[in-house]
Structure formats: structure tokens, C-alpha cells
């Protein structure tokens, strides 16, 4: 095949494929978010998008995007909304605590701790739905796992945070990209880093088992 002898063209071709995939799934994500009235649609739509992107990363392309998306959206509709409600309650508590600290002029230590908890919570909010679709566990276990992922894999957390911030800034200057990569771009990075972290952990565990 011609592309096999042209590595640069092959990479550009792969890039073009991924751009079209992410644009397609992002449009589905926006459509189903609106279908769920925004507040109730963003959770299951994100779960569906994560499931589709996860299969693409695993080199599985022999499936109907719309069929898988709709199936996952329905399956996780109530569970993901419960997760989002829990995240909103935790965020409300953190905001209240920070406001209380400011109002009472408490020591800087309390502000730093609350801000650190806020950053961890924000990162958990970004990764928790993709993590859930790749590890179907209970909500309590899910929150523990997502917190451990954020704290235990700081490099991945930094990459995800920088990528999310970068994509948001780019899309603020180029609003047209919101329709094509607003959710899919961040989700792709989250799922990719998550899979690499899981693979690394399994490799370490296997190595330890071989040495015992």
C-alpha cells in the first residue's frame, strides 16, 4: 500500500481519521446533552462518548457509533446523574467552606487545604465518568478509585489538567471548535492516560508476581 512507504502521510492520515471521529462523537455528545435537558443529559452523554472513544483507542472500529452511544446513554442515565449530583454536593460543601474561611479570616493553612481539595475534586469530576465506563463499580468505590487515580498518578493528572485548560482556552478564541472538540478532545486524553496508567499498574503487578 502506498501509505505504508510514507510514514509522514500515514501519520497525517491517522490524524485526519481521529479528527473526524472526535468531531462525530462530539456532535452526538452535544445532541444527547441537549436531549437530556443539559443538566440531566451531560452525564450519560459523557459516559456514552467515553465508551465509544475507549473502543477506538483499543483499535475496535467494527461497531455502529450511534448504536453504542444510544445503548450506553440509556444504560448509565440514572447512575451518571447520581454521580453528577454527588459531585455537585461535594463542590457546594467546598465552596461553602472556603467562603466560611474567608468570612472568618481563618489561617492561610485552611485556605490552602480547601483549595487543594477543590483541585482534586475538579480533576475527579473530569475523570470520574470515563473511569466509570471502563470500571463498572459501585459509586463509593468509584469515588475512592478516582481520588486515588488523581493523587496516585500526578503526571497523568497534570497532563489532563493542562490539556483541559489548553483546549478550553483555544476554544474561547475559536468558538467554532466547541461543536467538534469541546468534550471529545478532553475525554480522549482522559481515557488514553487512564488506559496507560492501568496498563502500567498491571505490568508492575505482574512483574512482582513473577519475582515472588
Fold and architecture overview:
The chain is mostly helical. The protein has one domain (2-211). 83% of the residues lie in helices and 0% in strands. It has 9 helices and no strands. α1 (7-35) runs antiparallel to α2 and α2 packs across α5 (108-134). The longest helix is centred in the first third of the chain and has 29 residues, at 7-35. The mean pLDDT is 88.
Number of DSSP strand runs: 0
The average pLDDT score comes to 88
Strand proportion: under 5%
Structural class by secondary-structure content: mainly alpha
State the shape. Answer: globular
Percent in helix: over 70%
CA-to-CA gap between the ends? 47 Å
Concise structural overview:
The chain has helices at 7-35, 42-57, 65-75, 77-103, 108-134, 139-152, 154-173, 178-181, 184-211. It is mainly α.
What are the main properties of this structure?
membrane, mainly alpha, DUF624, transmembrane, transmembrane helix
Lay out the secondary structure.
Elements lengths: L6 H29 L6 H16 L7 H11 L1 H27 L4 H27 L4 H14 L1 H20 L4 H4 L2 H28 L1
Helix pairs in contact: 1-2, 2-3, 2-4, 2-5, 2-9, 4-5, 5-6, 5-9, 7-9
Amino acid at each position: 500500500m502506498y501509505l505504508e512507504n510514507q510514514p509522514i502521510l500515514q501519520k497525517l492520515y491517522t490524524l485526519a481519521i481521529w479528527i473526524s471521529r472526535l468531531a462525530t462523537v462530539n456532535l452526538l455528545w452535544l445532541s444527547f446533552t441537549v436531549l437530556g435537558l443539559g443538566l440531566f443529559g451531560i452525564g450519560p452523554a459523557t459516559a456514552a462518548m467515553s465508551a465509544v472513544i475507549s473502543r477506538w483507542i483499543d483499535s475496535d472500529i467494527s461497531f455502529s457509533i450511534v448504536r453504542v452511544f444510544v445503548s450506553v446513554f440509556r444504560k448509565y442515565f440514572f447512575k451518571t446523574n447520581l454521580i453528577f449530583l454527588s459531585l455537585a454536593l461535594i463542590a457546594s460543601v467546598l465552596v461553602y467552606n472556603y467562603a466560611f474561611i474567608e468570612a472568618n479570616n481563618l489561617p492561610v493553612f485552611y485556605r490552602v487545604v480547601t483549595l487543594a481539595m477543590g483541585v482534586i475534586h475538579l480533576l475527579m469530576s473530569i475523570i470520574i465518568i470515563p473511569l466509570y465506563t471502563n470500571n463498572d463499580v459501585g459509586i463509593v468505590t468509584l469515588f475512592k478509585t478516582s481520588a486515588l487515580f488523581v493523587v496516585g498518578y500526578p503526571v497523568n493528572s497534570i497532563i489532563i489538567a493542562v490539556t483541559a485548560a489548553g483546549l478550553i482556552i483555544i476554544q474561547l478564541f475559536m468558538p467554532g471548535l466547541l461543536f467538534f472538540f469541546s468534550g471529545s478532545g478532553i475525554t480522549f486524553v482522559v481515557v488514553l492516560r487512564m488506559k496507560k496508567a492501568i496498563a502500567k499498574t498491571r505490568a508492575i503487578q505482574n512483574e512482582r508476581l513473577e519475582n515472588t
